[in-house]
Specification:
The structure holds 3 protein chains of 3 kinds. Chain A is an alpha+beta fold. The longest helix of chain A has 22 residues. In chain B, helix 6 packs across helix 7. In chain B, the strands form 4 sheets. In chain B, strands 3-7-1-14-11-12-13 form a 7-stranded mixed sheet, with helices on both faces. By secondary structure, chain B is an alpha+beta fold. Chain C is of the alpha+beta class. Chain C has 2 domains: about 170 residues, Aldehyde oxidase/xanthine dehydrogenase, molybdopterin binding domain (Aldehyde Oxidoreductase, domain 4, 2-Layer Sandwich), CATH 3.30.365.10; about 140 residues, Aldehyde oxidase/xanthine dehydrogenase, molybdopterin binding domain (Aldehyde Oxidoreductase, domain 4, 2-Layer Sandwich), CATH 3.30.365.10. The chains are: A alpha+beta, B alpha+beta, C alpha+beta. Chain C: This is Xanthine dehydrogenase family protein molybdopterin-binding subunit.
C-alpha cells in the first residue's frame, strides 16, 4: 500500500507529512514531527497518556488514523507551552505537586486544556470526568484534580487581567 | 497538604536545617509539565529496527520444530534470532550477588515453562512487519503437565532444567527463622488462633511500559537507552549474557515513567543489544501494554498460614508462619524476596517464640519478581488481618492489642537483630489521635523508648 | 439492601534497604567555575524524587542554596556505581553518599575561601545563600562563585568530593535465619472507613487516616505525594488488582487498562495523613525509606474494615464483590 501525504496544522504551523497506511496521529506526532511530549502508554486508547486536542476536542492520538484527519488542527503539550514561562495549567500542575514520574502529565494537562476550552468554570465532578480516561499510577489523582480546579482559576484570572 | 506532628520524638529531631525538611519544588516538574522530560523512547535513530517476540501459547511444553522461514518472507523483516544466537544463554539475574543456579534461558532451547515465555525474536524495519513476522513463525509444541498450585508444586515432578520445584537455601527447602520454642509455647498458651491467607499476582502497571533502544556505536561499543530501575545491574548481566567486556556497554537512563519494582528485571536489554550487535543497526524493544500486563513479572502470589499462641491478656507468645511465594517458572528476584519475607516475620511485634518456613516455589506461570513492598506487602495483609482476628477473638480493642505486643527499642527480633529506632507505638497513638479514638492512660503513655512493667518479652 | 459501614486498623513497619549481597552507592560532587555544584550519579528517578532530594541533601551539607545544585544522572560512562532504585534504598544510600562527597568538597571550598580571606578556615561559616564569611562577621566574606573562580584559575585546585555508602553483605545463618538485612525501619498505621453494599458486594473506601513515621521528611511535599499515591495503590491492591482473577487458574488474565481494574479519579477516598519523625541514626539527616511501605497498611486496614462492616472475613486478595457476596451468603446460611 502506498504512503499518503497528510496536511495538519500542528500547534499553529502548517505541516505536511508522508505517512504509511494506518499510521496513528500519535506516531505522526512523535516519529514524523519529533513532538515527543505526547506519550505512548498503551497504544490501545486506554491510558490517556497520548491525549491531544483535535480541532479543539480531546482525543487519544493513538486511536486516530492520521489519514482520516487531513486538514485538521492539532494542539499538543509543546504548543500549549508559551515562549516565556508556563501556561497557567502548567503552573497549576507544577505548584500543586501534581506530577511524580511525569509520564501521564502531558495527557492530563491536554485533557485539562480541552475541559477549560468548553467549560471555564468546572466543578470537581467536571474535573474528575475530564481526566477519567487518563491513568496515573503514582499520585492517587487527588493532587491532579486539585490542579485542574486551580488551573481553571488561573486561566480565568489571566483572562480577566487581559480583558482589563 | 502535608502535615508533620513534631510533638513525637521532639528531643531527637534536629531543628536547624535549611534545605532538608523544606518542600522545594521537584527538580523534574518543569520538564514534566512542558512535556520536555526525556524518557528512553524519546530518542530515535535513523535505520532503527523494531523487535517483537514470538511467545509461548502453552503453559509447559516441549518445542519440536521451530519454523522461522515464513517470518523471513514478510517484507521488512530483517532477521530472526533464536537461542543459538545468544552467546551465554543461561543466566539468573542475582548471579551478581552469588545466587545459583543459572535457571533461566534468554531464549528457550527445547521447552517452554510458562504461557507467554519468549521463544524467538523477529527484527524488522517497522513494528507492524515485526509483529506480522512473529505471527507467522510456526512452533510445534508437545504439551507437558503443568503445575499451578504452590503446595502441589512442592511435591510434584521437578520441571526445571535442574533441581527441585523450590529454591534450596543452604541445604534447606525453605528460608527458616527459628527463635525460641513455638511448640512449647503453644502448649502453654490460653488460645491457639490459626488462619490461612492468600493473594493472586499483581501487575505494576507503570504508565510507561518496559523497553529500551540499543544503538551500536562507531567505536564498537553499544549504548542502551533504557528505563531500567538499576543501570549497573542491567549492564553487568548484559555483559555476562553477551560475552563481551563490561566496558563495551554503556547504559543511559535514570528517567522512568513509573517502575514500582517492575523494571528491575533484565529482560529487554540483552536481547535488544544482541540484535543491534548482529545487525549493526539500532534496535528498539518496547513491551506492548498486553506484554506488560501478562508477560512482565508481577508481584508474586503468596499463600501464608499463621498459627498464634495467645494469652487472655492479649500477649502473643508464639507465632508460626508457613509462607509460600509463587515464583512462577524462573527465579529472578524471588529467592531474595522470600528471605525478605522471612525476615519481616512476625511483624513489628515482640513475640518470644517464632518459627518461620518461607518457601520460594516454582510453578508454570509468569515468573514473578520485585514489586513495591517486595516480600512484605502480602505478609502485612496476612499479619494485620491475623491481628484483627486475634483482637476480635479476645474481644479487645485492635489498637490496644497491637500496643501490648508492639516492639520497643532494645527488644530482640526473631532474626536476632536488636530493635532500634522503633516507632510503632507512636504511629498507632498518632492514628488514634487523628481519628478521635481514645486510648486508656496506660496505652496513651506507652513509648517505643521503654518497655513498661507487666508487658514484655518472656 | 443496605450499605454497611465499618472501620479497620492496621499497623506496619518497613525495612530501609535489603543488603544480602552488600549494598553500595556512590556519588561525586564538584563545583563548576561559576559556583554551581554538580552531583554525578547513576541513580534512577521513577517519580519518587531522587533528583530533588539528592540536591536538597547536597545543598544542606555544602551550605549553599538548593538552586545552585544540579543532579546529573544516569549514564554509566560518567556516573559512579549505584545498585539501583528498589528496596526503599535510594534516599538512604544515595543521600549518605552525597553527604560524604559534599563534605569533602566543602572542606576544599572552605580552605580556599580561608586563603582568599586570609583567615583560619575553622572560623568560616556558609550562610546558605551563596556566601562564606567569618563567623559573627557577615561583612568579612566572599561569594561561593568567587571561591570557585579562585580555586580553578588562581590555585589550581578542584572543589570536589567523593562519596560512598556501603551496607556490608549480611550472610544468613541457615539454621536460625539470623541476619542483618536492613538499615532501619519506618512505620505506619492506617485507619480505614468503608461502606459495603450487601446487595452488590461492592466496597467504597470512604476515608483513610494515615500516620507515618519516616525518620526525616527530606521534602515533606514529596513524602506526602508518596503517602497519598501509596494509599491509593493500597486501596487498588485491596479491592481490584489481579493478573489472574481465578488464581491459581491462569485464565481470564487482563491485557489492558479496561480489564485490569484500578480506582479512577472518581473513586477516591478522603485522606488525612500525618508524618511523625524519629530520625534514623544511620540515615541522611535521619531519613528512612518511605516509597514502598505506603501501600502496605491500607490493605489490611480495608480488609479489617470490611469485616467490621459486614462480618465477612476475606482472606484472599483482592477482596472482590464476588468474594464478599459469597461470604454474606455463607453467613446468612448459618443464621437462617
Amino acid at each position: 500500500m502506498k504512503h499518503a501525504v497528510v496536511s495538519l496544522t500542528v500547534n499553529g504551523a502548517e505541516r505536511q507529512m508522508l505517512v504509511a497506511p494506518g499510521t496513528t496521529l500519535l506516531d505522526a506526532l512523535r516519529e514524523n514531527q519529533g513532538l515527543t511530549g505526547t506519550r505512548r502508554g498503551c497504544d490501545q486508547g486506554a491510558c490517556g497518556a497520548c491525549t491531544v486536542l483535535l480541532d479543539g476536542r480531546t482525543v487519544m492520538s493513538c486511536m486516530v488514523p492520521v489519514e482520516t484527519i487531513d486538514e485538521a488542527r492539532v494542539e499538543t503539550i509543546e504548543g500549549l507551552t508559551p515562549l516565556q514561562g508556563l501556561h497557567p495549567i502548567q503552573e497549576a500542575f507544577l505548584e500543586g505537586f501534581a506530577t511524580q514520574c511525569g509520564f501521564c502529565t502531558s495527557g492530563m494537562i491536554m485533557a485539562t486544556a480541552g475541559l477549560l476550552a468548553k467549560n471555564p468554570h468546572p466543578t470537581r465532578d467536571d474535573a474528575v470526568r475530564a481526566i477519567s480516561g487518563n491513568i496515573c499510577r503514582c499520585t492517587g489523582y487527588e493532587a491532579i484534580i486539585d490542579a485542574v480546579l486551580d488551573a481553571a482559576q488561573r486561566v480565568n484570572a489571566a483572562g480577566s487581567a487581559q480583558a482589563a | 497538604m502535608e502535615k508533620i506532628d513534631a510533638s513525637f520524638f521532639s528531643a531527637e529531631r534536629e531543628a536547624d536545617l535549611d534545605v532538608v525538611g523544606t518542600s522545594v519544588q521537584r527538580a523534574d516538574a518543569r520538564g514534566h509539565v512542558t512535556g520536555r522530560t526525556q524518557f528512553y523512547e524519546d530518542v530515535g535513530f535513523p535505520g532503527m529496527l523494531h523487535l517483537k517476540m514470538v511467545r509461548s501459547t502453552r503453559h509447559h511444553a516441549l518445542i519440536g520444530n521451530l519454523d522461522v522461514a515464513p517470518a523471513m518472507q514478510v517484507p521488512g523483516v530483517v532477521r530472526v534470532l533464536t537461542h543459538k544466537d545468544v552467546p551465554n544463554n543461561w543466566y539468573t539475574i542475582l548471579k551478581l550477588i552469588g545466587v545459583e543456579p543459572d535457571d533461566e534461558p534468554v531464549l528457550p532451547e527445547d521447552r517452554v515453562l510458562f504461557m507467554g515465555e519468549q521463544i524467538c525474536v523477529v527484527l524488522a524495519e517497522t513494528p507492524q512487519a515485526a509483529l506480522e513476522g512473529a505471527r507467522r513463525v510456526v512452533v510445534d509444541y508437545e504439551d507437558l503437565p503443568a503445575v499451578f498450585d504452590v503446595e502441589e508444586a512442592m511435591t510434584s515432578t521437578p520441571f526445571k532444567k535442574q533441581g527441585t520445584n523450590y529454591f534450596v537455601y543452604e541445604g534447606h527447602n525453605c528460608r527458616r527463622i527459628r527463635f525460641g520454642d513455638v511448640d512449647k509455647a503453644f502448649a502453654g498458651a490460653d488460645h491457639i488462633i490459626e488462619h490461612r491467607y492468600e493473594s493472586s499476582p499483581i501487575e505494576h502497571a507503570p504508565t510507561e511500559t518496559t523497553g529500551c533502544i540499543a544503538k551500536p556505536e562507531g567505536n564498537g561499543r553499544v549504548t542502551v537507552y533504557s528505563n531500567t530501575q538499576a543501570l549497573y545491574f542491567t549492564l553487568d548481566n548484559m555483559a555476562l549474557i553477551l560475552g563481551v567486556p563490561f566496558n563495551r556497554l554503556r547504559l543511559v537512563g535514570g528517567t522512568v515513567g513509573g517502575g514500582f519494582g517492575g523494571k528491575v528485571d533484565v529482560m529487554v536489554e540483552p536481547i535488544a543489544a544482541l540484535g543491534a550487535m548482529l545487525t549493526n543497526r539500532p534496535v528498539k524493544y518496547a513491551y506492548s501494554r498486553a506484554e506488560e500486563m501478562q508477560v512482565s513479572s508481577p508481584r508474586a502470589a503468596e499463600r501464608i498460614y499463621i498459627k498464634d499462641g495467645v494469652m487472655k491478656d492479649g500477649r502473643i507468645i508464639a507465632r508460626k508462619v508457613t509462607l509460600y511465594v509463587d515464583a512462577g517458572a524462573y527465579c529472578r528476584h524471588s529467592t531474595y524476596g522470600t528471605t525478605k519475607a522471612a525476615a519481616h516475620m512476625p511483624g513489628p511485634y515482640t513475640i518470644p517464640n517464632v518459627h518461620v518456613d518461607a518457601y520460594c516455589v516454582y510453578t508454570n506461570r509468569t515468573p514473578s519478581s520485585a514489586m513495591r513492598g517486595f516480600g512484605v506487602t502480602i505478609g502485612d495483609f496476612a499479619l494485620e488481618s491475623q491481628m484483627d482476628q486475634v483482637a476480635r477473638f479476645l474481644g479487645m480493642d485492635p489498637m490496644q492489642l497491637r500496643l501490648i505486643n508492639a516492639y520497643r527499642d532494645g527488644d530482640m527480633k526473631a532474626h536476632r537483630k536488636k530493635v532500634e529506632g522503633a516507632a510503632l507505638v507512636e504511629v498507632i497513638q498518632a492514628a488514634a489521635k487523628q481519628t478521635g479514638h481514645s486510648l486508656p492512660p496506660e496505652f496513651a503513655s506507652m513509648s517505643s523508648l521503654k518497655r513498661e512493667a507487666g508487658h514484655g518479652q518472656a | 439492601m443496605a450499605r454497611l459501614r465499618g472501620r479497620g486498623v492496621a499497623a506496619v513497619n518497613y525495612p530501609t534497604g535489603m543488603n544480602l549481597g552488600g549494598d553500595p552507592s556512590q556519588a561525586l560532587v564538584h563545583a563548576t567555575t561559576t559556583g554551581s555544584f554538580v552531583i554525578t550519579l547513576s541513580s534512577v528517578d521513577l517519580g519518587q524524587g531522587i533528583k530533588t532530594v539528592a540536591a536538597q541533601i547536597c545543598a544542606e551539607a555544602l551550605g549553599v542554596p538548593y538552586d545552585t545544585v544540579m543532579v546529573d544522572t544516569a549514564d554509566t560512562d560518567t556516573g559512579p556505581h549505584c545498585m539501583g532504585t528498589f528496596a526503599s534504598r535510594g534516599t538512604h544510600r544515595i543521600g549518605n553518599a552525597v553527604i560524604m562527597a559534599a563534605r569533602e568538597a566543602r572542606e576544599v571550598l572552605m580552605s580556599i575561601a580561608a586563603t582568599e580571606l586570609e583567615v583560619d578556615a575553622g572560623d568560616l561559616v556558609t550562610d546558605g545563600k551563596g556566601r562564606i564569611h567569618v563567623n559573627g562577621a557577615p561583612d568579612k566574606g566572599i561569594a561561593v562563585l568567587d571561591v570557585a573562580l579562585a580555586a580553578h584559575f588562581k590555585h589550581g585546585k578542584t572543589i570536589s568530593g567523593r562519596g560512598i555508602f556501603l551496607k556490608p553483605k549480611s550472610e544468613v545463618v541457615p539454621e536460625t535465619g539470623e541476619m542483618d538485612p536492613d538499615s532501619c525501619q519506618a512505620h505506619a498505621c492506617t485507619v480505614a472507613e468503608v461502606e459495603v453494599d450487601d446487595e452488590t458486594g461492592e466496597v467504597a473506601v470512604l476515608k483513610m487516616t494515615n500516620a507515618y513515621e519516616i525518620g526525616r521528611a527530606v521534602n515533606p511535599a514529596l513524602a506526602h505525594q508518596q503517602i497519598v499515591g501509596g494509599a491509593w495503590m493500597g486501596i487498588s491492591h485491596a479491592l481490584y488488582e489481579t493478573t489472574e482473577p481465578y488464581y491459581p487458574d491462569r485464565s481470564h488474565g487482563p491485557l489492558d487498562f479496561s480489564e485490569y481494574l484500578m480506582p479512577g479519579p472518581g473513586d477516591l477516598a478522603e485522606m488525612d495523613s500525618v508524618i511523625i519523625e524519629r530520625p534514623a541514626s544511620n540515615g541522611p539527616y535521619g531519613a528512612k525509606g518511605i516509597g514502598e511501605m505506603t501501600a502496605n497498611s491500607p490493605i489490611p486496614a480495608i480488609a479489617n474494615a470490611i469485616f467490621d462492616a459486614c462480618g465477612v472475613r476475606v482472606t484472599s486478595m483482592p477482596i472482590t464483590p464476588e468474594k464478599i457476596l459469597r461470604g454474606l451468603d455463607a453467613l446468612r446460611g448459618r443464621t437462617n
